[in-house]
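hey m, so remember when u said the tokens were messed up on ur end? i reran from scratch. heres the input so u can diff it against urs
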Amino acid sequence: MLNDWTKITDWIISAKWLQPGSFMGATIIVHGGGRGGSVSDKLVAIDSNATPGYLGALASDGVFRVDSNFTYTDGGDYITIGLESLYEDVQFGISNAKVPAANAPTWQTFTTNTNEYGFAVDEYIDCEANEMPHSWAEGTAARLHLHITTKGANASGVNQYVKFTVYVSYAKSEEVTGDEWTETSFTAELTIPDGTAVLESFFLDMGSNLTLTGYTIGTQVKVRVKRIAATSGDPTEYPGDIFITQVGLHAIMNTLGSRQLLVK
């Protein structure tokens, strides 16, 4: 029988009926107290006095108590426990990306001891491909965003603007006709308010989802990010270069991984 303060990750490894990879949120600490103990401050509790093997609601007598933040599915010889809308980043670094022969960003001083690429209008960079993680909820949409940092302050007295397009190519892993690489793009504009300081960090949501219906683990994603001319306000453009530190893809996760190499 489990003791009151067992980590749930340790229990997954030792419990034969709960298959590895079937639990989402493995950093949660199991709360004890035994039968009738308080579980109001935790999402999952082990009742050490309950009948082994029973999965029940919060008020039930069971080895597992699951409150409304969790969902669970009885798979026969294992149980899948999940959280909804649990996101993780697929990250595309800029510092190690490939610059073109023309219209390339310039490698510049960022902080005292670090450098980063600064982008003028019409400059772009190509990032390496990433594979969607095996923890990804297959077929669910993902959301692009940029991490941007000002090189110079905005002391102009008015808001300034900077605009970007991210080109996204993606493909399934199978060698099947119809699974060739596909390209789409997303464009969004960032407002840099009057009074913004040097090296101020911004988050820019790219405005809509990357639809991945029918795509599975093994799917590859590749991006190009380009600064384009701004369209808002007057004057419109943030002057000089601006730093892009990262392109990110927020994706929904529903397991720790997959049970097979290319099958969830």
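this time it looks ok to me. The two ends are 30 Å apart (CA to CA). if urs says something different then somethings off w ur setup not the seq
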